[in-house]
């Protein structure tokens, strides 16, 4: 079960990799100083210090969101995927 390579399923929806139009998370991590402003707007309970420590690492951001907002992992992943899909390449 846990070791399978199949995509996760949430409420009948398959979660796979990002869509072609979505930014690759590596780009978000590389440009975290810019993207953390957007993350702060989305998750305003996260402090500047927390966002600095996250340093663009998706798993750390997910953990902080889940902990701070007392959310399930599935809800956290859904919010992160939605946020990621809305991000645009830095100019």
What does this structure look like?
- With 91 residues, the chain is mainly alpha-helical.
- It has a domain at 25-86: Orthogonal Bundle (Protein Yjbj, Chain: A).
- It has five helices and two strands.
- It has helices spanning 25-30, 32-42, 48-54, 58-69, 73-86, and strands at 8-10, 13-15.
- The longest helix has 14 residues, at 73-86.
- Residues 1-21 have low confidence and may be disordered.
Q: Short summary of the structure?
A:
The protein has a domain at 25-86: YjbJ (Protein Yjbj, Chain: A, Orthogonal Bundle).
Q: Give the CATH level 1 class of the domain at 25-86.
A: Mainly Alpha
Radius of gyration: 14 Å
Structural class: mainly alpha
What's the end-to-end separation, in Å? 42 Å
User: Would you identify the CATH H-level superfamily of the domain at 25-86?
Assistant: YjbJ
Please state the overall shape, judged from the principal axes of the Cα atoms.
globular
Numbering strands along the chain, what is their spatial order in the largest sheet?
A: 1-2
Could you tell me the CATH topology label of the domain at 25-86: Protein Yjbj, Chain: A
Order of helices and strands: EEHHHHH
* Uncertain parts: 1-21
- Helix count equals 5
* CATH architecture assignment name of the domain at 25-86: Orthogonal Bundle
Task: Compute the number of strand runs.
Answer: 2
Main sheet properties: 2 strands, antiparallel
What portion of the residues fall into strands of 2 or more residues? 5-15%
The helical percent reads 40-55%
